[in-house]
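User: If only I could read backbone structure tokens as easily as an amino acid sequence. Those tokens are not coordinates but codes from a learned vocabulary of shapes. Could you go through the record with me and say what the backbone is doing? Here is the record:
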Amino acid sequence: MIELKNIRKTFNPGTINEKLALDGVSLRIEEGEFVTVIGGNGAGKSTMLNAIAGTWPVNEGAIVIDDINVTGLSEYRRAKYLGRVFQDPMTGTAASMGIDENLALAARRGKRRGLRWGITKKEREEYREKLAELSLGLEERMSAKVGLLSGGQRQALTLLMATLRKPKILLLDEHTAALDPKTAKTVLETTQRIVSEHHLTTMMVTHNMRDAIHYGNRIIMMNEGKIILNIAGEEKKNLTIEQLLHKFEEVSGEEFTNDQAILSKKDF
């Protein structure tokens, strides 16, 4: 479970560049929920994920994970609760290290490091099985340098690394935005499978309305640092892009102008 309590975040306070990025955001996500977060540029989506991760401290409010108030914890101390995949496939992995070495780093996250760091035979077999589930052939290339992988392969590996040791919450920050449509679909389907199999509490930020509606069991729309729509259950299952756009215009009093989301409407 994760709960945000009246979160506020202002960048460059007291200057001409002051920007209120999160304006009293309150949200509760139960264990195992898969929530997609949609909104235009500057709506506050990524800022909310960064606030949860501790990348940027909030000015007001509280962040609670499994009844633990983590608001005052630094980013590295919160890392043991979180798994995270970024938009850039180059982020989150060590390019000069092998696939197996990257997985070993992920498996040891939050643990004390001693002299016996080597990968055991048992661990190697576990990694091979996990990689085989991705259906990308990476189980046959475990010693290959990660920097040689394609963007889709690397993003799938990063997803596996983020969930190798079940996190309290999985944060996906537009993790398919830099991929071509076919590869993005493969990574999203892999995401859905991993989240479902491991019953992971997940927040997925996306610009794509179709993906936001199709994946997860709940959709949140943000605008100007606030949550303006929160749709779940049968209403989400039957939701169309046209209906979502209409709801946005009703609540916000303005048109949704994000080009990427409008383009996805044509695919519906």
Remarks:
- The first strand starts at residue 2 and ends at 11.
- The first helix runs from residue 45 to 53.
